[in-house]
Amino acid sequence: FPLAVFPLSCVVQNYAWGKVGSESEVAKLVASGDPLIQIQPDQPYAELWMGTHPRGDALIRDNRIPQKTLGQWIADNPACLGAKVKDAFQGHLPFLFKVLSVNTALSVQAHPNKELAAKLHAQFPEHYPDANHKPEMAIALTCFEGLCGFRPVEEIVSFLQNVPELRALIGEVAAEQLERSGSDDPRGVSAALRVCFTRLMKSEKKFFVDQLNMLVKRISQEAAEGKDTSGSNGDLLLRLHSQYPGDIGCFTIYFLNLVRLEPGEAMFLGANEPHAYLHGDCVEIMACSDNTVRAGLTPKFIDVLTLCEMLNYTPAPSSSKIFPAAQSQLDPHVYLYDPPVPDFTIMRIEIPASIKLYLVSAMDSASILLVIQGTAVGTSTAAASEMSLHRGSVLFISANESISLHLSSSDGMLLFRACCLL
């Protein structure tokens, strides 16, 4: 098939937790890059899906392929994925590439490994619709906040001693067990942590709502009096309670790390890693799955028992949750985020203003290219014509195809490229 590089019109998802109108990076990118989508100023724009998901299959924007989606085109031309990717993932694009704009917290959750995913899908297909794992990676576009992984035990113990409402939910026996657990016994620490977190999440609803209301009232009074509420994580507690009043997820801030990412920094969320997105804009990539086990800060189905059973209870500092990018040895303008899963890799491409011609190199994987900043004209022997690229443009690039960028912006370009490096 002669056409193997083409622009895409992607799918916007309007979820209540998204940012409204012009505040949303999703909306800004779409407004700049996709004339087929009209942005409404009062709608919450949460996600831009760039891929072949059945609920959000991108549309090919080329008059030689009228009204065909990316998923349909790949099904007809599976060789475009690259030989290794096609064979490893049965002719399907193995990832979904996204932009997220998060205004309110996005569920305390974790994703199963393949073994657990298959089991959950067999038992509860209405809640776990496929048998695949769902590792994810988020790379900040703006300052980004999330919860990720269990805090160091000394931090959790400090909260147990400073937040009596939390201690009441955990119970004295479990709290003392965690306080006595020594750093020289990782298994003992994990076991004590599991007991404490499970007791919290399985608390009887009236009891935890009463304790949460007492905590919110106490912190609100202390804040009004000008007191320091950091020992109770007061600012974050009040913010989450205002978004999800009476939700058990508000208490998870005492167990999970608060991770703050600067633009370009990333979090990798492997199997069984507890996490929640709190605020900010990011690009995200995930394996193709809809399997999410939730337990709080969400109106969706929650599965507390499964979550508490599956989690990785290894405590670690928040700094360890920032996933490093490695500068490519082949191209100093490329930074690789290459996690320990086969499904996806992301490249951040920073082209300085001094460069006027840049080659987006060929690789043995189909890829999706997103323009965050800058303008260029793209040319390729595999494209129907020259392509005008600017903020919000999205291109599909078949395996073993390259694109020449003729830059025209005075501030260079920032691109993200999602692919599969097997």
From TrEMBL:
GO terms for molecular function: mannose-6-phosphate isomerase activity; zinc ion binding. GO terms for cellular component: cytosol. Keywords: Acetylation, Cytoplasm, Isomerase, Metal-binding, Phosphoprotein, Zinc. It is an enzyme of class 5 (isomerase). The keyword Acetylation applies. Belongs to the mannose-6-phosphate isomerase type 1 family. This is Mannose-6-phosphate isomerase. It comes from Pycnonotus jocosus. The gene is Mpi.
